[in-house]
Amino acid sequence: MAEAPLLELRGITKRFPGVLANDDVSFDLRPGEVHALLGENGAGKSTLMNILYGLYTPDEGEILLRGTPIDLGSTKAAIEHGIGMVHQHFMLIPVMTVAENIVLATEPRRAGVLLDYDVATKRVRELSSRFGLIVDPNARVDRITVGQQQRVEILKALYRGAEILILDEPTAVLSPQEAQELFEIIRALKDQGKSIIFISHKLNEVLEVADRITTLRRGVVVDTVPAAGATEEGLARMMVGRDVLLRVDKTPAHPEGPLLEIEHLTVLDDRGLASVKDVSFEVCAHEILGIAGVDGNGQSELIDAIAGLRRVASGRIMLAGADITDATPRAALDAGLGHIPEDRHRRGLVLPFSLTENLALHGYRSKPDSHYGFLSLRRMVGHASRLLREFDVRGGTPSTPASALSGGNQQKVVLAREIDGDPRLLIAAQPTRGLDVGAIEFVHRRLVEQRDEGRAVLLVSLELEEILSLSDRILVIYEGRIVAEFDPTASEEEIGLAMTGGRKDEAA
Amino acid sequence: MSDELLEEGFEAPPEGGIPSPQRNLASRLRGIRAALGPVATTIIAFLVAGLVVLATRHNPLRVYQAIFNGTGLNWFFHFGSYSIRVPFGTSHVWFWWNTGSVAAQNLQQTLLLTTPIILTGLALAFAFRCGMFNIGGQGQYLVGSYFAIWIGSSFAHMNPLLHVVLAVVGAGLAGGVYAGIAGLLKATVGAHEVIVIMLNWIAVWVGSYLFGQQGPLQNSSQKSIPISNDVVEGAKLPVIWGIKELQGLSVGIFIALGALIVYWIVINRTTLGFEVRAVGFNAEAARYSGISVARNYILAMAIAGTFAGLGGAADILGWEYRVGTGDIQVSQVGFIGLAAALLGRNTAVGIGAGALLFGGLINGTSGRQLDPSIFQPELAGNLTTIIQGLVVLFVGLNLGGIGVWWSRRRRRA
User: Which runs of consecutive H residues, i.e. helices, occur in A36-94?
Assistant: First the structure.
């Protein structure tokens, strides 16, 4: 394995106002290898890769390609040196076809100005069959699945002659099956001699796909280790800097009477199409019910209907014995709902508000937060200080705006507010999205705690692993219907299959 | 900018927070820094306008000096030993300033002009805090002034105190209802609140009809002139400084100052203000928290319109006492209030200061105040408009933001 590195980053340092994003980082990539870059959110992974892709200029350090120093002043320079990047958020034009997107900016032309679409299609076909990236060149990008869009992004990079591919958190948007398919593609690319940098904060993926793993923590390289022989526990310790409990520690559930009862619920989406179809289930006290599913299968509409944020087309919702079908959001809260929303920036927090104000967002109308319509600021601040301490929110005082906190601490604020409302039912929608290992552990522990205190917890998550480790019972939602029920001993494969519409032979 | 940079950049504050004495200092510094932007904006606007003056071959410094003297703000610098009459009494007490000087009269004018600018500024600000851009302050002001005229020129034998209160309250409510229409449309059918610009024109032309020849509220004795009846004595706001016949300062200024205080308290210290701000910053999060977004849209617009309506009352009952169709068509005060609120960043103190700036400018450049040998008053009026325009432009450009961008760029290079 003592091959000469294809690409080498030496002593890269990058400062932003007030932060050292990369501190003397060295990293190398061998030809035909998959090298994973592992680290928590904010560890400096994306900064390092943006430097490599010519988006940022490093303050110190040099980049060597095949032993010669290169200057990556722009994205264009990076592409010319054979470096391609697939961003977490795709950079595709939705209304154009796959082929058009791939050849964009370097189109084959006819008579100098016209796009030679036939040549474009042909080249894309060649490329996709060579690397096993199957996708229809004539399909419009907004009509294909997310997994296919990602293939288009990879093809785009390959079309531009990439020898080195940077994949930034590529599995974040994929279902477990799609992720497996992506790993196949990565292996195929590797066999064809491409070198790949795989950015992730998911330990199992990194172990599965990488040859070597470099861990970053707070802008510093902790270590580079071969994937063979590395363990999840060891990598987590490197990432976080302490021992992390990866498995959720919980006792078996003792479910009692149902707190949330949903009967034949149908809900329409914004376009007026049924996205929740005749769904019935219940969640009991002392129970965590997990709903697994690929994004966009009706989870959001289901939660919105329970929380009074979306009208119900038909069916009934009962919370702790009270009918809250088509209740106002206020009435749902008053009936005993706690709701950790899936998007904390859009819903969970008013970002310019102080932490005090955010923590009072549900309770501001009643004593002790206010009297006769006037806010009792001192009581609000006192209340907030207590919650910030209790939930170990760091990096802010009661007067700090919510926007100034890191994602994990923001989520703790949401959690504190919702749990402090003493709900009967707690809805946790993707409660750990975008959080790092340490914060995930905290959120998980709190959710189990809520269950043990006798609340009903409805967990909706796209992370199958999270569903499996937290839930006492698992429902799978697919195209708006509950298609299967599992207990937590079920295997990831079984559930994953149900998430994509049942057995393979049935789906065809 | 990448998400990662944002997350990393903001994780900088040390854990456990900053100790309290430093925090007090920090928050005070933050207040000063917040004021820097508007002050810099104003200074740059004056500098650019100075270039315009220079282009007309006048000395900008002398022109500005003359404008300043015209505002009457120089009154504060002329100390001496004078006496004033105790309000509502006959005895006199010693006073630092000369309340009867020419500068004092100029200052009364400036404050008279400042009053409706504060109130229409608040009309923008209150709606803005709820996430709406109320450019209908002008129309709401006009509707308020129509009701002030109508109530003030009717009921000639009413108890004066009752009459003036009725006229003021009626004008405020009228402005509130008029703006509430826009709030209602936004809340129910999702119409953008900018439709108030059409309500502005409706107000102008309804006024032109009401007070025009043969209009229902046209002057009952002078049938050939398109003006209203005069406000009866009992409905006029008491003049507290200066001479009534020379447009002395009425208690209207206290309506405006009171409104600033009410605005601050409602926004910062009440559950209503909490809801309004939550909706303004993030309507979706407010809805999720059980706050009725529709109710707040309607209420915030209505309160905003009430402020503007009070502005109409302060002008009509305070010194104009009548209104002509010509005045209605050229009136701009709602838009000046808008500029004042933008400059003052929708804070109570900022709106007060911005309104004083524009009120002073209008008065200082008016033909009556400005020495024609230094700058032609006809041009000076345009100078005011230029400065106003520049202020709005620079506020829109967000000079503070440019500063941040520049320092980041330098650090990155």
Answer: 45-52, 75-80
Tell me which chain B residue has its CA closest to the CA of residue A369.
B271
Secondary structure of residue B409 in the 3-state scheme: helix
- Per domain, the residue ranges of chain B are 37-401
CB contact under 8 A, B12 and A19: yes
In whole angstroms, what is the distance from residue B315 CA to residue B265 CA? Answer: 25
Kindly report the CA angle at A160 between A158 and A166, in degrees rounded to 5?
Answer: 55
| β-strand partners of A369 | none
A357 touches chain B (CB under 8 A): yes
CB contact under 8 A, A46 and B2: yes
Half-sphere exposure in the Cβ direction for A243 (13 Å, CA): 2
The amino acid at A274: A
- Give the minimum alpha-carbon distance from B130 to chain A in angstroms, rounded to a whole number: 13
Cβ atoms of B96 and B234 closer than 8 Å: no
The pLDDT value recorded for residue A175 is 74
Lookup: tokens for A203: 């330990």
B42-73 core/surface letters (b: 16 or more CB in 10 A; e: else)? bebbbeebbebbeeeebebeebbebbebbbbb
A68-70 and A83-86 beta bridge pairing: unpaired
Q: Which helix (H) or strand (E) holds A65?
A: strand A60-65
By the 8 A CB rule, do A228 and A198 touch?
Answer: no
Nearest CA in chain B to A395: B15
Report which residue type is found at A68: T
Yes or no, beta carbons of A404 and B13 under 8 Å apart: yes
What is the distance between the alpha carbons of residues A28 and A25, in angstroms, rounded to a whole number? Answer: 10
Domains of chain A: 7-240 (3.40.50.300), 258-507 (3.40.50.300)
Instruction: Could you please state the CATH topology (level 3) that the domain comprising B37-401 is classified under.
Output: ABC transporter involved in vitamin B12 uptake, BtuC (1.10.3470)
Q: A89: exposed, middle or buried (C-beta count within 10 Å: 0-12, 13-18, 19+)?
A: exposed
Residues A62-98 pLDDT 10s: 999 998 898 888 888 898 999 999 987 788 888 889 9
pLDDT tens digits, A2-51: 568 899 999 999 987 767 889 999 999 999 999 999 987 778 888 899 89
φ, ψ at A168 (rounded to 5°): -90, 110
